[in-house]
Amino acid sequence: MLDEDILVVKDLKKYYPIRGGLLLRIVGYVKAVDGVSFNVKYRETFGIVGESGCGKTTLARTILRLIEPTGGEIYFEGENILSYKGEKLKDFRRKAQIVFQNPYMALHPRKIVRDIVSEPLKIHTDLSKEDIYDRVLEMLEKVGLSEEHMFRYPHEFSGGQRQRIVIARALILNPKLLVLDEPTAALDVSVQAKILNLLKSLQKEFKTTYLLISHNLSIIDYMCDRIAVMYLGKFFEIASKRDLFKRQLHPYTKALISAIPLPEPDSGRRERRIILRGEVPSPINPPSGCYFSTRCPYAQPLCREEEPRLEEVDEGHFVACHYWRELEDLG
Q1: Could you tell me which of 263, 245, 262, 266 has the C-alpha nearest to residue 254?
Q2: How far is the C-alpha of 174 from the C-alpha of 141, rounded, in Å?
Q3: Nearest to residue 107, comparing CAs of 50, 171, 164?
């Protein structure tokens, strides 16, 4: 079962219409997610990394049907969830939860922690008040909080404590899939490691599959089994963590890896830093051909004319680049 896919995404698109003129006709689209395909296996941590604004959060919310896709297919445990309605959609929500990026905004300011964490149980189960209380207390203790915290309001907690509450709420139904959208981005560096270690221990205990969204490659390296590199709504490379950090086949991935700070910058371990020219193009009017061609130091005329397909070039290693073989020879 561990080799099977819990989540399969095929050619997923999310376009936001742009309206203009007196009649507010559609004059264009923001292509936030533009034809993404990948799979996630049971109990693994699949990471999606990319610059801010590349579509990571939109992709995560579309997968959970918090926003509806423009096109494509999403299969969860072998069933296309885009056909779900009513009770089937409600059951899917029980099995797939999300931890949002900002714990300050994710908690209702006028509810105490007991009511916040127990809300999923009230919606999805028929447990008695006593059983719900016991379950909430048990979950809070698992994330490092205690019974006294149940009767406080969110503003009485630190950022790290609030994120623990968010995690407790997300895991209280024991979901099979947990989406982590930049789970430590709003936290102090000193707190980030504690939250990541907590997530790792909870994953082992609950046997949960993680889909981790981040722009921080150090966090991706620490948490993930496989990684997808996203740019301007598309995936440019997918590989296991070991393969990606050892052998980057796409120039954008090479640039991202070269930017990771080293604890000993004078140790001589790093190859030259790759500085990308220009700015990220607008998703309203992306470049023709390869979306990365306007910033790629190795771009050729073909790159501006024809979009490369994401293809498997080695076992489990996918890349979307016309010249990945030549770039690999360059080192």
Answers
A1: 245
A2: 15
A3: 164
For residue 45, which of 273, 294, 284, 211 has the smallest C-alpha distance? 211
Burial class (CB in 10 A: 0-12, 13-18, 19+), 197: exposed
pTM score over 0.90? yes
- Report the distance separating Cα 284 and Cα 18, nearest Å: 9
Q: What is the CB neighbour count within 10 angstroms for residue 270?
A: 14
Q: For 197-216, write each residue's pLDDT tens digit.
A: 999 999 999 999 999 999 89
Residues facing 240 on adjacent strands = 226
Continuous segment of H or E residues that includes residue 251: helix 251-258
**Is the Cβ–Cβ distance between 219 and 227 less than 8 Å?**
no
Q: What is the DSSP letter of 148?
A: G
Instruction: Name 209's Cβ contacts closer than 8 Å, sequence gap at least 6.
Output: 6, 7, 40, 41, 42, 43, 44, 45, 46, 176, 177, 178
| Dist CA 91 CA 68 (whole Å) | 17
Torsion of CA 23, 28, 31, 35, to 10 degrees: 110
- The stretch 188-194 carries a mean pLDDT of 89
DSSP for 204-232 reads HHHT-EEEEEES-HHHHHHH-SEEEEEET
State the CB neighbour count (10 A cutoff) for residue 144: 15
SS3 of residue 20 by DSSP? strand
